Amino acid sequence: MNVLLADRIAPTPWRNGGGETRELFVHPQGADTHWCVRLSLADIRQDGPFSAFPGVTRHFAVLEGAGVVLTLNGRDHTLTPDSDPLTFDGALAPACRLINGPTRDLNLMLQGDAQGALLRAEPEQAWHDPHPRRALFVSEPGVLLHASGEALPLAARSLVTDLPSGPWRWLPSATGPAYWVAVAEPSLQSRWGGSR
Questions:
Q1: CATH superfamily of 115-184
Q2: In the structure, what pLDDT confidence band is assigned to residue 194 with cuts at 50, 70 and 90?
Q3: Scanning 1, 71, 101, 160, which has the fewest C-beta atoms within 10 Å of its C-beta?
Q4: CATH of domain 10-111
């Protein structure tokens, strides 16, 4: 397993000045637009449209802040830290309205032959997934516990990757959300990115 601390990643400002992104993982590494899997944190500071990503499936979850309202095909979707992730076609480029100030959000984007899911990690609830690549992102500190008894303490805003088969349980020390990440991508031969 590898643990990456999001706070150690330098953010990249958006061209429109509306926010910034921390890239947690991308495959292939160094790919500009031809990646298959991309996991990132976004800090949204002002209202505005999302960028369009034709051919991309997006999974979006609010981690911090009051939340956002995304407008997709004329329908509003209100997302807060208590909401399940929203999955949508990246080509739709929804309008985004902040509910009450900036938010921090988790984004999983898949294209090509990549498939996967972003699932809320319910505290102490056992999780197992058949996808070959498994990870966990946590917004608050806690302990990741394997059925074997192996325990891994995690700091706030950590991504732990290369999880062996479960079941796993997340034992948080605070109420912030956490998310399991599961990915299957045939050409993903290398390990997940990240450093301890």
A1: Jelly Rolls (2.60.120.10)
A2: very low
A3: 101
A4: 2.60.120.10
More confident: 66 or 28: 66
pLDDT at 176: 92
- What's at 84, amino acid-wise? D
Banded pLDDT at 190 (limits 50, 70, 90): very low
